[in-house]
Design goal:
Binds to actin and tropomyosin. The chain is mainly α. The chain is built from six helices and no strands. The longest helix has 47 residues, at 2-48.
């Protein structure tokens, strides 16, 4: 039992020692990488950005300013070109992703919700603010006169089959039919 505990203690102590050694190595590696990046940055700046020497005369100073402005303009043009290229490539990537997604066939259409919208609002949404015509759906409906409705009501009362069936039902209705037949 004691022998087993000693082995466990030795194993945990060894693991902790290895962890600390690995952490120390990682810290030294990170420091080396940071120093290498700093040296690389200094070399790049020395190569691309020579130290600025200000001339003494006014004319030389103006020429230096003109050169700097020309460099700034060229750098701005390059930046703009790269931004446009980036936008184009991102748009192409999005289009390709959509095509890829459509080709997979896993696209589920979302359920459509019913929207209450008048005809004017619908045309305004489709055509934008240019749409000025008011679409009154009731304006084109046919006008119904009262006389027509009264005539139709009379015809309905006479030709209503429900009344005829009610009158003919039962013994009284058969008696009437029999008397009408004579």
């Amino acid at each position: 039992f004691f022998l087993l505990q000693k082995k466990r203690r030795a194993a945990t102590a060894r693991r902790q020692h290895l962890k600390s050694a690995m952490l120390q190595l990682a810290v030294t590696e990170i420091e080396k990488e940071a120093a290498a990046k700093e040296v690389e940055k200094q070399n790049y700046l020395a190569e691309h950005c020579p130290p600025l020497s200000l001339p003494g005369s006014m004319q030389e100073l103006q020429e230096l300013c003109k050169k700097l402005h020309a460099k700034i303009e060229s750098v701005d043009e390059e930046r703009y070109d790269t931004e446009v290229k980036l936008q184009k490539t991102t748009k192409e990537l999005e289009d390709l992703k959509k095509k890829n997604f459509d080709l997979r066939g896993k696209f589920k259409r979302p359920p459509l919700r019913r929207v209450r919208m008048s005809a004017d609002a619908m045309l305004r949404a489709l055509l934008g603010s240019k749409h000025k015509v008011c679409m009154d759906l009731r304006a084109n409906l046919k006008q119904v006169k009262k006389e027509d409705t009264e005539k139709e009501k009379d015809l309905r009362d006479v030709g209503d089959w429900r009344k005829n069936i009610e009158e003919k039902s039962g013994m009284e209705g058969r008696k009437k039919m029999f008397e009408a037949g004579e």
